[in-house]
Amino acid sequence: MRALRSRKRTDLLELDDVERRLRPFSRHYLGLRSVPVDHIVGTEGRAAAFTLDFEPRHSFSRDRLRSLAGAFPDGSFPPIVAVKLGETYFVIDGHHRVALTRRNGGAMIDADVTEFVARVPLPPGADMVEVVLRELERVFVEESGLAEARPGVRVGASKPSLYLELLENLQVHGYHLMRERDRVLGNAEIAGDWYDRIYEPVVDAAKQGAADIRDAPGADVFLLLHRRRREAFPSCGCPPLEETIATEAPGKRRRLFRR
User: Residue 102 contacts by C-beta under 8 Å, 6 or more apart in sequence?
Assistant: First the structure.
């Protein structure tokens, strides 16, 4: 993750790489529209030619920018061609037009847009760290059966390792649920029960009225409370999660969720 964080400051996202990770399942044409320039952080095949801020890396691109500025002094050049995935945009054609718009301080640019729809979309202006986290979220909801049981449900986490911990928690729940019901259950049935009876109620109860953690990813909140519950086991057994939630004072939560 450290290497990925160093990439995010200078490198454009490559559309092919993001497609491979997030696996869009459909696409449709949105037509001409104005898009926010700061949401354009990706490219199709030109990552080596421009920085994340669309500064040209090569002299011929700088020459091209000067020619473009002379040809369109008022910035009224033709729309770029772009792909939208979530709220992040990738340039297919028009890199120099984006570069010139950014250089001139423009906030919006006209674009001919095709939208790619993925199970887990990207937020505005995503970086590579965000792409990897959303890839792991996709893997988690698909492998666990949650994508089938509760289509469209999002399970955010701040670190890749949390998705493995979350999957283990769900699998333990599945083991106890099958013992309780005395039959073999499919992944989707287990995942739906876990989400409805365990995950969502815990996250909602923890965040209710707690402004200090309201924006923390759900998986972070859920797993922290489970760790606190396990830590209490040697002295007082495993307390109910509701009791664990009540013992997390607001000031303590703020320190725990500071990122």
Answer: 37, 53, 54
Which pairing describes strands 80-85 and 108-117: parallel, antiparallel, or unpaired?
A: parallel
Each residue of 173-211: pLDDT tens digit? 999 999 999 999 999 999 999 999 999 998 988 878 665
Q: How many CB atoms lie within 10 A of CB 258?
A: 8
Pairing of strands 13-14, 108-117: unpaired
- On the CB side of 202, CA atoms within 13 Å amount to 22
Overall residue count recorded for the chain in this entry:
259
* Strands across the sheet containing 40-43: 13-14, 40-43, 88-93, 80-85, 108-117, 26-36
Q: What is the pLDDT of residues 1-42, one digit of tens each?
A: 555 554 446 789 999 999 999 999 999 999 999 999 999 999
Beta bridge pairs of residue 13: 42
**Cα 211 from chain centroid?**
22
